[in-house]
Design a protein that fits this description.
- The complex is a heterodimer of chains A (about 450) and B (about 750).
- With about 450 residues, chain A is an alpha/beta fold.
- Helix content of chain A is about 35%, strand content about 15%.
- Chain A has twelve helices and 17 strands.
- In chain A, helix 10 runs parallel beside helix 11.
- The longest helix of chain A has 25 residues.
- Chain A is globular.
- Chain A starts with a helix and ends in a 14-residue tail after the last strand.
- Chain B is globular, with a radius of gyration of 31 Å.
- The N terminus of chain B is likely disordered.
- In chain B, strand 7 and strand 8 form a beta hairpin.
- Chain B has 30 helices and nine strands.
- With about 750 residues, chain B is mainly α.
- Classes of the chains: A alpha/beta (about 450), B mainly alpha (about 750).
């Protein structure tokens, strides 16, 4: 798709360090291939244990639901019974035999035959920012580099969908999303703050007719012809092309994806009239039009105080969005090719604190996956009866992310060099949970 | 190097900070550079590009030095100046202007990843960004600036340079890798985990370098009183524990009872103190005695894993402390010494690249022993010049901007990465995001150089408030703080109990599907948070503020939570500490910590001074007397709403035009990009900038309104947007456009803003 790929092939004439390094890397090292000069022990070592597993993709798209703030695993996907750490939260039966989730997610409970719950996630990052970064990138947050989020990796390896829209969309307000990391800005997600406001600047200014707009742009090209002739530089040409693309986009039918008013009121209400619910609805509409990676975030999970008041509230929002999304994707035949992922930076302490809250707990927590080749109706991994320790099937964050990459058919052991010539792989040597797939 | 002296009647004012004796003449110095380049061109069969015309030069100089296009008025002043040394004069004036500091800040903020908040958090982040701007404003010598950064300690409000370490809070080794790259042009981050695969650096060297700054603690934020208080809590608990170990059964039981009591109370005390501490967290950097150890998987033979590493420099001489110097000082002195083989080279290249678009060695932050400069003689010369100028960046840049090479037309051919460039002129560059934004601001604001007092005051007050809180807490003794915290803890305990009650009631209301009741109870629950703050205010912050006020000699005022202060004599007097009506003790005004509010008269005088400026502008633009009122309104909204890029948070929030134009997110070094993107094109075509630029009182429209005839209006538009008159061919194109219905000047303006020549610097 032109939107994302164009600028990667375009280089400005100004020598930026990033460009220089990318170029040097590609000419000297062969980007993406493990070069001979890395055969020395020190530098080859990090990749000895990268997973060689790769499959024919089972998922074409990913809808990634991020629970920002640290979702209480005990009050959502891993409820307990008969222990103090359970608090007042009760498990309920679901559409999947033997799978129980929290009573706060009754609608989702009816979709659980599509879902695999992973109750054995574990992380070492107990602060929001670091945890969030780790979850999104599989790497620890560092001061010398930014690692890419999964959507950017996908953009690099597999490029475009078949839409005039960007391939990677982020719906939410978190300003610290790692985005494209060290990849060029063109691999970044398109950021949509409010799903109901649609895309910025895609309509002609008020008071100007379509004809006038085009006449003005023709005039601009006319007045610029000498300059463009004199400087046929790559970045100058890129602008001309980018303007063409932007104008094509303004006319694109795909833009209608952002017009949520096309949906029946009933549907919109069912997803929940809040930015998460509408974000889920937007995600479905985007995926239908060929956008391949959509992240929707839902905040409010940092429940240090009054956990059992706030979690049910959040769950009500989550439940409507998530359950309708899965149901809807399934009804439209899209669930098979769309992997729905839900995760958070960490779980919350089993011990309930003095403010009836739960604090940060990276040691054991939960995430879910549905569709995109995942066998539904299962749970993977286990915590002890109080939800404190993982006692079965420990899943590190890189493993979780490797599973997403595996579903997309991305090469987990292919080394990519950052512009600073440091070697990285998708999901930092994580091992995909292959038995989650049907 | 021999200094070139003023001659040929080109007498320029002296750069005060330059070495004693000789009068520094940047033009004559520039000729030396030109002659080096001429020799290089001759040897390579090249010729200098044609000299750039005045229109091109005035636009380029404004963009390169102050980061924006000139206003039509500024451009005309230059074009109409008949003196032969007008370029030199303009360069000197611009280099001393506020705009220079702002533009340079944008560059260094990208290099140093300086963020207004982010990892450093808002207090240290604000202090850091303001410190950088101030340093650039006062033209602090570069070596001094770097020394201050790498040896920074203290509190944010006293020393904004601590932001250099706070920026990488909790990541001291990453900070070191960045230091080596930014100031020494050397990439050592690979050596953090193993010997560098391409360069000579070993992992041992990395850790030896890291040992210099490893002891700088960025998590030290309790302050004296809070530390004392924590000591009291610890002592009391250990006393109880000691009693528990007593042989006397009675004593034992008493100890146990006490211990339980302390523990129960302690959790709420801790909570209360944490809430206080959060307000002054991450505001201090102190050097602690902390050993750096090799990693557990250290694989080389020269040392054992986990062994302690002593500091040692990676190149050049040793960093041995002189009498009275700490090891850290010696390290900073080593780093910035003219004898350091890479320090000067890097900054000379940086400033050269800012003018020409490419450095003498690329990438300038990845120097190797084998790196050869594109024009080696010039590299040596520039390094010498930098040292002779005592790292005076302004003087150094004045030399570069005065070279004939710089004042040539840009090179027509596209420069290919990785090839040798001979600097026959600057390269064509796309404006940076900040240059684009500030140029839009210029099209709107008739005087974009006017200092932004509002933005600066906001930053200053933010720091003063943090300092006030910290000093106030420190003005209490540990005991007083403890007593206050114990009182507050009672309320914390009550809140916890109330929370449980409310939770049960809410669950019941929900089960009953009584939404209104659940909502009301929810409101009560969130109200508890506010009550806690009030309790903290009452028991700790208010007494602390009053103690501080008394200490600084201001008359303390009585404090009633929620009611604000009252003091008969204090009313209205600036020398008295006074409470604001909100009842928030932290907002209590204390002289020295709060800038005195302007009196009515002072406010009126300030307003009048501004309006006098604006009246002069109005006269220049021929605004009729009766419209002045509207002009003032428009101007006052412009200075509020159209801040220069450097006056906006660093980086600007996501979605801001600056970010669409490619402003760096300040996460990695020099992360800005100048690539074309669809969102950028959309913003230029359909964004809200254009309507603002077309406002009656924008700089551009004032110029247009001043012109009488349509032809003159076209000229005024060209002058304002592109700093030149239209060519005949362009006039023809515009004339022809009327056939497609375009005959308003708005149409022309829209089109010109969407040309590429507008955003490329020629």
């Amino acid at each position: 798709m032109s939107f994302n790929l164009r600028s990667s092939t375009v280089r400005g004439n100004e020598l930026s360090r990033r460009q220089f390094a990318v170029r040097t890397a590609s000419s000297m090292l062969g980007v993406g291939l493990l070069p001979d000069m890395f055969a020395s022990k020190a530098s080859a070592a990090p990749f000895e244990d990268a997973s060689p597993l790769k499959q024919v993709p089972t998922a074409r798209n990913v809808i990634y639901l991020y629970m920002s703030g640290g979702q209480s695993h005990l009050d959502t996907w891993d409820p307990k019974v008969g222990v103090e750490t359970a608090g007042p939260t009760k498990p309920i039966k679901t559409s999947a035999d033997g799978v129980r989730i929290s009573e706060y997610l009754p609608l989702t409970a009816r979709q659980m035959h599509h879902v695999a719950v992973i109750n054995s996630l574990t992380s070492t990052q107990g602060a929001h920012e670091q945890g969030n970064y780790m979850m999104h990138t599989s790497y620890e947050m560092r001061g010398t580099i930014r690692h890419p989020a999964m959507g950017a990796w996908m953009n690099v390896f597999q490029g475009g969908g078949n839409s005039s829209l960007p391939n990677f969309v982020y719906v939410g307000n978190d300003s610290r999303h790692p985005g494209a990391g060290f990849f060029p800005a063109s691999k970044s997600p398109l950021y949509v703050n409010n799903p109901e406001n649609g895309l910025k600047n895609v309509t002609v200014q008020k008071g100007i007719t379509e004809d006038q707009f085009h006449a003005r742009m023709d005039l601009a090209a006319g007045l610029d012809q000498d300059f463009r002739k004199e400087f046929p530089h790559r970045n100058v040409n890129a602008y001309a092309e980018m303007y063409d693309d932007a104008m094509k986009m303004m006319k694109s039918e795909d833009l209608k994806a952002f017009d949520l008013t096309e949906e029946a009121d009933e549907t919109r209400n069912a997803y929940g009239k809040n930015s998460f619910g509408q974000g889920c609805l937007l995600a479905r509409r985007l995926v239908e039009r060929g956008v391949r990676f959509v992240e929707v975030s839902l905040g409010g999970w940092d429940t240090h105080v009054a956990n059992f008041v706030k979690v049910p509230e959040n769950c009500a929002t989550l439940d409507a969005g998530l359950a309708n999304l899965i149901g809807d994707l399934h009804a439209r035949g899209l669930l098979d090719e769309t992997l729905v992922v839900l995760c958070s930076e960490f779980g919350r302490t089993p011990t309930i604190n003095q403010n009836v809250g739960r604090d940060h707990y990276p040691k054991a927590f939960s995430g879910i996956m549905a569709g995109g080749g995942i066998a539904g109706g299962q749970t993977y991994g286990k915590t002890d009866k109080e939800g404190r320790e993982v006692v079965e099937g420990k899943v590190q964050i890189p493993d979780f992310n490797a599973t997403i990459a595996y579903a997309l058919g991305l090469p987990l052991n292919q080394v990519i060099y950052s512009p600073s010539k440091r070697p990285f792989t998708i999901a930092d040597k994580g091992k995909p949970l292959t038995h989650l797939f049907s | 190097m021999k200094h070139a002296f003023a001659s040929l009647g080109l007498v320029l004012s002296v750069f005060a900070s330059v070495t004693s004796g000789a009068t520094f003449n940047p033009v004559a110095e520039a000729r030396e550079i030109d002659s080096i380049l001429e020799r290089d061109w001759k040897a390579n069969g090249l010729k200098q590009n044609a000299a750039a015309d005045d229109n091109t030069m005035v636009r380029r100089l404004y963009l390169d030095i102050v980061g924006r296009i000139p206003t039509a008025r500024e451009a005309e002043a230059f074009l109409n100046d008949g003196s032969p040394d007008k370029k030199a004069k303009l360069i000197e004036r611009l280099l001393k202007s506020e705009g220079q500091a702002l533009h340079a800040f944008n560059y260094w903020a990208d290099v140093l990843r300086a963020q207004t908040s982010g990892q450093a958090r808002i207090i240290a982040g604000t202090a850091y960004t303001e410190y950088l701007k101030d340093s650039l404003r006062e033209n602090k010598p570069y070596d001094q600036l770097v020394r201050e950064l790498v040896s920074a300690q203290g509190q944010a409000w006293d020393n904004g340079a601590i932001g250099y370490y706070m920026r990488d809070r909790g990541m001291p080794l990453d900070n070191l890798a960045n230091t080596a790259r930014v100031f020494l042009g050397t990439r050592i981050e690979c050596a953090q985990c193993h010997d560098h695969p391409f360069d000579k650096w070993t992992q041992m060297q990395f850790f030896q370098m890291g040992a210099f700054t490893y002891g700088l603690d960025t998590n030290d934020y309790y302050g004296a009183s809070m530390n004392d208080m924590r000591g009291i809590v610890r002592d009391r608990e250990s006393e109880a524990r000691a009693m528990m170990k007593s042989k006397d059964k009675k004593e034992q039981a008493k100890g146990k009872e006490l211990y339980e009591k302390y523990r129960k109370e302690g959790q709420y005390v801790t909570r209360a103190i944490a809430d206080l501490r959060n307000q002054i967290q991450y505001t201090q950097v102190t050097l602690k005695d902390k050993d750096l150890r090799l990693p557990h998987d250290y694989q080389y033979d020269d040392a054992k894993p986990k062994s302690v590493v002593a500091p040692a420099t990676m190149m050049g001489h040793k960093a041995e402390p002189r009498p009275g110097e700490t090891q850290l000082d010696a390290y900073a002195r080593w780093m910035t010494s003219p004898e350091n083989p890479r320090f000067t080279k890097v900054v000379a290249n940086r400033l050269w690249k800012r003018a020409f678009g490419v450095a003498l060695i690329e990438p300038l932050d990845e120097l190797l022993d084998s790196s050869v400069a594109m024009v080696p003689e010039l590299m040596t010369h520039l390094e010498k010049l930098m040292v002779e100028l005592n790292y005076d960046m302004r003087a150094f840049q004045s030399v570069i901007y005065n070279t004939k090479a710089y004042q040539s037309e840009v090179t027509r051919e596209e420069y290919a990465l990785g090839t040798v460039y001979h600097f026959t002129g600057p390269l064509l560059r796309r404006m940076t995001a900040e240059q684009m934004w500030d140029s839009f601001v210029t099209l709107i604001n008739p005087d974009p150089e006017m200092e932004n007092a509002v933005a600066r005051e906001k930053a200053e007050q933010r720091l003063l408030s943090a300092m006030k809180m910290r000093d106030a807490l420190d003005s209490l003794t540990g005991e007083q703080l403890f007593e206050g915290a114990r009182e507050a803890a009672k309320a914390y305990k009550a809140r916890a109990e109330r929370t449980i009650e409310l939770q049960t009631q809410i669950a019941k209301a929900r089960a009953d599907e009584d939404k209104d009741k659940a909502k009301e109870l929810g409101r009560q629950l969130s109200g508890l948070q506010k009550e806690m703050r009030k309790e903290l205010d009452k028991h700790i912050v208010a007494p602390a503020m009053q103690t501080l006020a008394a200490k600084v000699g201001a008359k303390p005022v009585s404090y009633t939570p929620g009611k604000g202060g009252s003091s008969d004599e204090a009313e209205g007097s600036m020398m008295m500490a006074s409470m604001t009506s909100s009842g928030d003790a932290a907002k209590m005004k204390i002289p020295g910590y709060d800038k005195p509010e302007l009196t009515k008269e002072e406010r009126a005088a300030a307003e009048k001074a501004l309006q006098a400026e604006w009246t002069k502008e109005a006269q220049y633009y021929g605004i009729p007397e009766k419209e002045l009122k509207y002009y003032f309104q428009a101007r006052s909204s412009q200075i509020k709403n159209w801040l220069r890029a450097a006056e906006i948070d660093s980086p600007a929030p996501r979605g801001h035009y600056l970010r669409e134009f490619g402003q760096s997110d300040r996460e990695t070094i020099e992360n800005a990009n100048n690539e074309a993107s669809v969102p950028q094109a959309l913003a230029m075509m359909n964004g809200q900038l254009l309507p603002q630029i077309l406002n009656k009182y924008s700089q551009l429209m004032l110029n247009v309104a001043k012109a009488k005839y349509p032809d003159d209006q076209v000229e005024a538009t060209y002058m304002s947007v592109l700093t030149r008159k239209p060519t005949q061919q362009e006039r023809d194109v515009w004339a022809a456009a009327s056939e497609s219905g375009l005959n308003e000047i708005d149409d022309l303006i829209y089109a010109l803003l969407n040309t590429q020549q507008f955003i490329f610097v020629q």
